[in-house]
Amino acid sequence: MSFERPAETAVIEGKEPLVELTIELERLGLNRGTSGNCSIRSSKGFFVTPSGIPAADLTADSVVEMDLEGNVLSAGNPSSEWRFHKDILKTYSWANVVIHTHSDYATAFSCFREDMPAFHYMIAVAGGDSIKCSPYALFGSQDLSDNVVEALRGRRACLMSNHGMIVVGETPAKALGLSIELETLCKQYLLARQVREPILLSKTEMREVLQKFKSYGVRGN
Questions:
Q1: Can you give the CATH number for the domain in which 170 is found?
Q2: What is the secondary structure of 85-140 as a DSSP string?
Q3: Strands 46-48 and 64-66
Q4: Domain of residue 182, residue span
Q5: Residue 215 confidence class, pLDDT cut points 50, 70, 90
Q6: Secondary structure of 70-96 in HEC code, one letter for each residue
Q7: Which residue out of 81, 170, 183, 205 is catalytically annotated?
Q8: Taking a C-beta distance cutoff of 8 angstroms, is the pair 3, 88 a contact?
Q9: Is residue 110 part of a domain?
Q10: Annotated catalytic, 81?
Q11: What would the pLDDT profile of 75-89 be if each residue is shown by its tens digit?
């Protein structure tokens, strides 16, 4: 299954990529049943997964389209978390995909209500020298959305206190890959803390990593 789109494509047309992404997240164990939600930017605003429909039952017809003012443009009820999807896509014009999961390790770590520090250089994959954890707020609320938008400033992923993770990306493939990476980092950090507090990379060391990541994956590097 391929989620990639040409880099110059600003809008991912059609609902099928969202259905495929949602099913893949469940297949990987990052979401289960009706937990979590996803959105993809559309020409009119964004497509978002509906409320209360398990991934196994999701079809293109059940995907909901909304505009960036929060108006529902199609039949169905959007995810209760539609506010942060709208606000993320409205705030960060480079983002085309938003994934929210209740994956085991990200959710477990989010219950500490702590930022994840630079215990491993792959923290930089999210764009900074830490993974921010947004303050707790009721699911579906505007407060939660405001907290998440702030936690994502300058980054591509964050945790939500006592809730789970959010990642954003230019394509479904990039967002999915980052979701997997963040879940892995949460698992590794929790395992390390079972022994003792891990030794962290310094600000200088992380600046070097972030500079290196500017060409990470580029041919010839």
A1: 3.40.225.10
A2: HHHHHHH-TT--EEEEE--HHHHHHHTT---B-SSSGGGGGGTSSSB-EEPP--TT
A3: antiparallel
A4: 16-213
A5: confident
A6: CCECCCCCECCCHHHHHHHHHHCCCCC
A7: 81
A8: no
A9: yes
A10: yes
A11: 889 999 999 999 999
